[in-house]
């Protein structure tokens, strides 16, 4: 099921590549309507969510909680470090337990790429699965809040020049955004250390030196350097990375008047972006966090539409 009378209905939200552009635009419009006070949530307040985070998170975890609060839903807490995961319980068995308890939606972050596949393919697991990030795989709710932020700014994606900069190979944010931005008509560029680039991304855009295109960009999307996925020391000092690949104050001055800066956060201040630019006039980093609550309301509503 896709979009019915403007209501997006989805069994699960696990990967941007599994959403049509119609579904994506429906979720963005719904998120904007929630934000602008033009929509009231459908009746999901009797339904129960479990937020299961097996990797650290501030924004995604708390933003889903806030979305659930705004939808009036009930939530059960889950803390992996005090759960039976410590006794060897598998992810499948944790979610099977949530299913048996009567939970209707599980929001899950887990380090294993594609962890969700066995859950959504299982005939016995009943809750809707919402992927809050799977290793270096996908991060669909981050992508949708990024798209909502761009759409809110420009009203369209067609022809926008978007550069995704930094730790591309390890980034589920980049992986989630590149295909959908390409499908929506944006012109994509990539930059950063060449060894963190995957030639498979060539189908979506062109690898460039940031300084070659910075004056043309509409959106500069910076990525966090993911030290935890680098298997040891990164090859750059913070200062060397910042000067070569990051948004310095000098580069900021080259951005055109209507351009915006984005970053999924957490930010490594002074690495991807100069400390004092995090809240600069062109920065939409806090707007991204704010929009995350509304687009996650839309996601939860979509996966619960047939359960309400
Ligand atoms: N952007 C993002 O996913 O942040 P968290 O890791 O804090 O959830």
Protein architecture, described:
- The radius of gyration is 19 Å and the shape is globular.
- The protein is built from 10 helices and 11 strands.
- It has a 5-stranded parallel beta sheet, with helices on one face. The protein has a 4-stranded parallel beta sheet with strand order 4-3-5-6.
- 35% of the residues lie in helices and 15% in strands.
- With 308 residues, it is α/β, with parallel strands linked by helices.
- Bound molecules: phosphoric acid mono(formamide)ester.
- It holds the Pfam family OTCace_N.
- Heterododecamer (2C3:3R2) of six catalytic PyrB chains organized as two trimers (C3), and six regulatory PyrI chains organized as three dimers (R2).
- Pathway: Pyrimidine metabolism; UMP biosynthesis via de novo pathway; (S)-dihydroorotate from bicarbonate: step 2/3.
Spatial ordering of strands, largest sheet? 9-8-7-10-11
Determine the mean pLDDT: 95
The rounded distance between the terminal residues' Cα atoms is 16 Å
Q: Catalogue the ligands.
A: phosphoric acid mono(formamide)ester
Number of strands: 11
Beta content comes to 5-15%
Number of helices: 10
What is the H/E string?
Answer: EEHEHEHEHEHEHEEHEHHEH
Shape: globular
Low-confidence spans: pLDDT under 50, at least 5 residues?
Answer: none
